[in-house]
Amino acid sequence: MTYLKNxxxxxxxxxxxxxxxxxYIKQIELSFPKGQSTVSQVNMTENSGDTTNIxxxxxxxxxxxxxxxxxx
Length: 72
Known about the structure:
Elements: E1 2-5, E2 9-14, H1 19-22, E3 25-33, E4 41-46, E5 51-55
Antiparallel strand pairs: 1-2, 2-3, 3-4, 4-5
């Protein structure tokens, strides 16, 4: 695990230790906006070089969710 900072984000980079997992995932990077403790972006780099980028927008913290939204 590596921690970095830039002008806008605190960044945590995770690199798998397991050789089996390294076959698939090279690195996962979590970006936290300065002054916040919630993730705003996730970047995953596969061993092949392909990347997946997830950006969270219009995030609501602890917003109520009606019980009707859930079903068993």
